[in-house]
Amino acid sequence: MIFEGLSDKLQGALSKLKSKGKLTEKDVKDAMREVKLALLEADVNFKVVKDFVKKVQERCVGQEVMSSLTPGQHVIKIVNEELTSLMGDVSSKIMISPKPPTIIMMVGLQGAGKTTTSGKLGGYFKKQGKRPLLIACDIYRPAAIKQLQVVGEKLDIPVFNMGDKESPVNIAKAGLSHAMKNNHDLVIIDTAGRLHIDETLMDELKSIKSEVKPHEILLVVDSMTGQDAVNVAESFNNALGVDGVVLTKLDGDTRGGAALSIRAVTQKPIKFIGMGEKLDDLEPFHPDRMASRILGMGDILSLIEKAQESMDLDKAKELEQKIKKQDLDFEDFLEQMEQIQNMGPLDKILGMIPGMGNIKDQLGDVDLNGKEMKRTKAIVQSMTVEERRDPSILNASRKKRIARGSGTSVQDVNRLIKQFNEMKKMMKMFTGSQKSMKKRGGFPGLPFFK
């Protein structure tokens, strides 16, 4: 879970206030002391923490909160609003040029994930109908050009390169010319990084900026480096002037110092976040949604967007009709499982649902993403098409054959059949209460949540 340690501590500090019918100034001060410690332990910039706690405390001891019927909820609302403000109030988008191509220059230190992020960004815009071109300007790091080509190939995005003997400035200019001739409306320049910030690196980046005049300069930083990421962002911004930040490896960051400090220190928005190693694990950054997730309120909007991206809506409607008619079979079960897997790891998905943030703690040793899912798929895939479509024909000999084919036991097969039948009953209950759910908006792409 994102910012697991910080999230647990903040929720713990604020939960004490929820149980109180009336709050005193001392209650608020005690809670804010815990909030302050949680933020400092998360490696959030000290000045940022000081200003944040001061703002929250001033608002919390006001008449509106103290006289409220639910003062604890009021305090959480204020913390949520101030966290959102800290990370940028509203999400900041890439500026698309009215005259193509839009030029995005990617900068950052070695090891932050700049090359992969360049590809991910190309993939993100390709889904939106753009025709991106990746330009390989990192001529120093061994295999950097090859890495970008491999990423481009996987995403079906062309990569312009001139080898590692030409200067990065000339490669950038030639790449831009190539993009114009070939009707590419988006250019992403992958520049070289260093292990540390130095004059040579900055001079080269300034020269590329001067020659190609990018519409956006995006700084890629490793969120797991915490306060160091903030220092890197400040240095790059002072020397080069950046338009936004991409935070990588956020899925592995349990602290959150970089995400909560960068905007306040540099005044530059976080525009994207890297949430995993897959090439589609790049998301626009929404400060309000991130604040909600940190405070255990979930992120339903992002979950719906993931569902809409990953799920075939026509198939979802077809499945909904099958559920209504009690006509669900193992083929539908397998298809739905695969679509849910496309949305990402199950613990991340559940973490977006309000109250399910600490799902791992709630479920103990239950394996949400690994062996259990694979075992289930193996059993279903070991059935014949006839057996999947009509589970009632699964007799003892067929179950033995399925167990052998899937490397499982007959008990495992029986357990899955039982779970499947229970799920069908549960589906019936969901469709029975469908009208009331639809009033609340349903859940696009997941018919059994409608």
Automatic annotation (TrEMBL):
Pfam families, sorted: SRP54, SRP54_N, SRP_SPB
Top enzyme class: hydrolase
Biological process terms in GO annotation: SRP-dependent cotranslational protein targeting to membrane
SRP54-type proteins GTP-binding domain location: 269-282
Main location, first listed in the record: cytoplasm
Protein name per UniProt: Signal recognition particle protein
Gene3D superfamilies: P-loop containing nucleotide triphosphate hydrolases (3.40.50.300), Signal recognition particle SRP54, nucleotide-binding domain (1.20.120.140), Signal recognition particle, SRP54 subunit, M-domain (1.10.260.30)
Domain of life of the source: Bacteria
